[in-house]
């Protein structure tokens, strides 16, 4: 048997001063995202009442304060995402069916923020996922317990389109590599492909046999899921 050329290589841990510690992550809620990051900040669900999200500057490594200033959504935050065109914009979705858009100050939060820059209403039950469009500025997609997918323009503060093709709880939503189509996974065991240019489902397939939930993810820049 040929020996591996990597047999003498050992990993080297990151220095403590370059780590982020004392992160009081909320692990009790059914979050779809436990961490999102961009070149300036990273965000995590924060322990405490009111649907808190901790937004921490990447330049401030080390032990974080016990009283870290957070975003407070007002009800349980179920998912969040950064705007790919603006590092200082974070969008959240909540148990109370709101889509909220927050402005992060330069240098990070200095006090608890309970006032969103924008609140979008339209979903009638809790909103479970939010994903910014990677290529179209200020466009987000959300899914909800009301069994709909909605596209929003946060710059114009309006709903662009609503999809009502799901028969059960929507478990995930993801854009493909070139953002021409998106895929959703659903508790009814079906994987659905949507083309926003057409405005409806272009493909639908039963993806799993069992009763367990599943999530969809594109394989790189291929058309495979």
Brief rundown of the structure:
This protein has 225 residues and is mainly β. The chain has strands at 20-21, 36-37, 41-45, 52-57, 62-63, 70-72, 77-83, 86-94, 99-103, 118-120, 127-132, 139-144, 149-153, 158-163, 170-175, 182-186, 190-195, 200-206.
Notable traits:
225 residues; mainly beta; Methylamine Dehydrogenase, Chain H; 4-stranded antiparallel β-sheet; 18 strands; 0% helix
Please tell me about this protein's structure.
The relative contact order is 0.10. The model has no long low-confidence stretch (mean pLDDT 91). The protein folds into 2 domains: 149 residues, 7 Propeller (Methylamine Dehydrogenase, Chain H); 58 residues, no CATH class. A 4-stranded antiparallel beta sheet has the order 2-3-4-6, with no helix packed on it. Strands 7-8-9-10 form a 4-stranded antiparallel beta sheet, with no helix packed on it. It is globular and about 50 Å long. With 225 residues, it is mostly beta strands. It is 0% helix and 40% strand. Strand 11 and strand 12 form a beta hairpin. The protein has no helices and 18 strands.
